[in-house]
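Archive entry. Fields below.
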Amino acid sequence: MVFAMMEDKWNFDEWAQSYDEDVKQENWIHKDYKKVLKLVAEKAKGIVVDIGCGTGNILRVIKCEQYIGVEPSGEMRRVFKEKWGFEPVNGHFLDILLPAETADTVITTYAFHHVPDGEKENAIKEMLRVLKHDGKIVIGDVMFESEEEKRRIGEEDGIAGEIEDEYFATVEHLREICERLGLEFTFEQINRYVWIAEMKRTTR
Ligand SMILES: C[S@@+](CC[C@H](N)C(=O)[O-])C[C@H]1O[C@@H](n2cnc3c(N)ncnc32)[C@H](O)[C@@H]1O
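PREDICTED_STRUCTURE:
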């Protein structure tokens, strides 16, 4: 069942209508929102699968052979269809509901932090399943270097409560996962909060 692992505490269905207005506020999570979408889009090529695509804002900037959105919230999918004239697949990080080796690039922006830490490795394995052998995963999201950094920044910026409400990844944890799965990886810090992680299978 598609919604089995998706927590609804953030109420994505209700957020769908106001989402595009909210991101324009550029609060700390969405600081440099447009820039981040553009940077992720520039790294994508060929057949692109976008997990947690929301209302599809990346379509404003992405150039690729084919774009497939994956989105568990029915209302997000509805707003997406209203804007773009086609509908995303009703799937989620642990069950993308696409055949194996569909994508040249799997991208995700501002959605990976909804995956609990204990499920992040399985989410990466599921992204690898739908990725062609020489494909690449690109994750643009709020992340912190380590748990210690997460606490420090949370306290300094007065956002500790907001940070605790989500499952923001640490670069340290993702590095460990990549090493276990034998992936090559890079992490690029875009601002105080947002990083772009790229992962691909080792060619050696
Ligand atoms: C903050 S929005 C980001 C939307 C879009 N990617 C963007 O950058 O504007 C997060 C999206 O992730 C979706 N989402 C939440 N949990 C998810 C999961 N487990 N798997 C896939 N998508 C999920 C939500 O429904 C929502 O549309």
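CURATOR_NOTE: Helices lie at 12-15, 19-24, 33-43, 74-84, 120-130, 147-156, 160-164, 171-181.
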